[in-house]
Amino acid sequence: QVTEESLQADSGADCVSLELRAADGALVTLTADFRQEVKIFRALILGELERGQSQFQALCFVTRLHRNEIIPSESMAKLRQKNPRTVRQAEEVRGLEHLSMDVAVNFSKGAQLSSHLHNVCAEAKEAIYTREEDVKFWLEKGVDGSMFEVLPQGSDVPELQRCRLCPDRWKPCICSYSLSIEWYPCMLKYCRSRDAGGKVSSYKCGIRSCQKGYTFDYYVPQKQLCLWDEET
């Protein structure tokens, strides 16, 4: 499976974005906002028209951006691709991350979490999710807590099943969505040089590339919004 990706960096806004078309036709975007320490995953998933879905369904997953997850925006802006058609393979496969997205984010108030949320998640106004542990981090930074709403959990509602096991298309359930970022610059490489006087100094001399998969679990009010998550 060869994936075509486009990478963009804006060092002024201190953010990077990466876009790719997944094997199932979904358009996946990752936006890393270094200034606010926020990363936003957006998936535009093709709908199943014959099963009553709209043309596409949009999802946004917002999580905390940690240091050393992805290279800084000014380094990304300097990357130049000599051979655009070369097929590249990630040097490091980072483990699958399984995230329980137990909080909904209010779209109209989300701009203070990240100024990019309005553009990136415009099609997913009713489907923006985050995690309680990330919310705690942002609240400590002074973000307004009224934009967050805790979603029903399996522990609170015993009859809440995973969507793949739920027989009724109109019942609420816990949906699962997986995506993979096949190739992204995750770390800078440093080389050492020695001058005439024998003094050693280090300088940036390249990037290390990574591949990483994510699985997001989140509440949906009806299984109809989660038709891909079925036992095959």
From TrEMBL:
Belongs to the OAF family. It comes from the Eukaryota. Residues 162-230 form the Out at first C-terminal domain. InterPro entries: Oaf (IPR026315), Oaf_C (IPR053897), OAF_N (IPR053894). Residues 1-138 form the Out at first protein BRICHOS-like domain. It comes from Dryoscopus gambensis. PANTHER family: OUT AT FIRST, OUT AT FIRST PROTEIN HOMOLOG. This is Out at first protein homolog.
